[in-house]
């Protein structure tokens, strides 16, 4: 007989506890432990199971893909939606997740592929009205408003779609579990059943997930482990531009990023983000530096802005938009210790213009020069692009994909690149590479 026991699991981080506590010992969140019924059964080891195979004897599996018709979306997925693959898409409320996936599903349906949009948050009439407004109506695009997992699986078995969107996984409930929708046990059960269905029936599936207040995907970490691809849809509410970033991809690069613009006709892909982010860049302004970033197969130019202002009393504030605040604190410490700047009573504001976010360390040198430019009130020349990682000793370290960064800078009309010595490329005919070994070399070049 199976032994029935209770386990309390945190809905924020997924940690388990044998008894209820007001505060999770793992993530320190309050009132997040929920009861979960666990059935424990001891099984004997099987001797008639499958046998292991040599890696040389296993044939390579070429994954078939379905194009969505949105070039930037297909590129982030690695060339299209994989047949039988499951993609988890997360993002803040109102960021445009449902709109983007409805457009992608309509692009699949336009090719004659049967597609099903399952919504547990909106009515079928709301989804149909949005599809008509965006010009996406099609006989091959089906809509189902349901949050019962058994009923959803019955419709899938009857309609046999080749592409599927589940909006969202937190609103669907398995009738076999007594807990409410959105709990840890429900999320794990719903996600596992959807992955099993997608693999068995060869359905290209997209699952929309909610995020927590700090921007991470809500629910247990096993939710991200179960799916094949995890995408993060990011953007600021005050900007119309959205960034789709790959966090995990079993069938392609896990560092791809695409840019979209929210319009009245839906999400519009932006094929040239560099021109977009630099369109309103001020000329001859101190504290403004153009940085070359690269994620995945794409290089982009972004504007880094810094404003440093003396504070009357007390410690100065440090505010970072579009970059890691811890990284900014480190660069300020390097600037003070290695270059002699006194910034303890200075307010520091750093912003990556356009509402995008840059996580790679190649932006370090651009941020440091932007802060020095603001303090000295000396603008950099308008034809200069900067990239490079800054170490704690004040050295400028090389970064990957230097060729793509140089090519993007040349295509956008820039004539000089300030970079680490190890990142120089043989491309002297169109653009000049200026190598700097330390931050003091870069600051000396700023004084010229």
Short synopsis of the structure:
By secondary structure, the protein is of the alpha/beta class. The protein has helices at residues 71-77, 97-109, 124-133, 149-159, 184-201, 222-226, 273-277, 325-339, 364-376, 402-411, 439-446; strands at residues 3-10, 16-17, 33-40, 65-66, 81-82, 86-91, 115-119, 141-145, 163-167, 204-209, 229-234, 241-249, 257-263, 266-269, 288-295, 298-310, 318-321, 346-352, 384-386, 389-390, 396-397, 416-419, 432-435.
Query: What share of residues are in beta strands?
Result: 25-35%
By DSSP (H or I, 4+ residues per run), the number of helices equals 11
Mean of residue pLDDT? 89
- Described by its quaternary structure, the protein is single chain
Main beta sheet strand tally, sense and closure: 9 strands, mixed
In terms of structural class, how would the helical and strand content be classed?
alpha/beta
Low-confidence runs (pLDDT<50, min 5 residues)?
none
Strand order of the largest sheet: 8-7-9-10-6-11-12-13-14
Give the overall shape.
globular
Radius of gyration: 26 Å
Q: What is the helix fraction of residues, given as a range?
A: 25-40%
Terminal Cα separation, in Å?
Answer: 82 Å
**What's the β-strand tally?**
23
Folded structure, characterized:
It is built from 11 helices and 23 strands. It is of the alpha/beta class. The mean pLDDT is 89. Helix 8 (325-339) crosses helix 9 and helix 9 packs across helix 11. Strand 17 (318-321), helix 8 and strand 18 form a beta-alpha-beta unit.
Any chance you could write out the topology, listing elements then pairs?
Blueprint: E1 3-10, E2 16-17, E3 33-40, E4 65-66, H1 71-77, E5 81-82, E6 86-91, H2 97-109, E7 115-119, H3 124-133, E8 141-145, H4 149-159, E9 163-167, H5 184-201, E10 204-209, H6 222-226, E11 229-234, E12 241-249, E13 257-263, E14 266-269, H7 273-277, E15 288-295, E16 298-310, E17 318-321, H8 325-339, E18 346-352, H9 364-376, E19 384-386, E20 389-390, E21 396-397, H10 402-411, E22 416-419, E23 432-435, H11 439-446
Parallel strand pairs: 6-10, 6-11, 7-8, 7-9, 9-10, 15-19, 17-18, 19-22, 22-23
Antiparallel strand pairs: 1-2, 1-3, 4-5, 11-12, 12-13, 13-14, 15-16, 16-18, 20-21
Helix pairs in contact: 8-9, 9-11
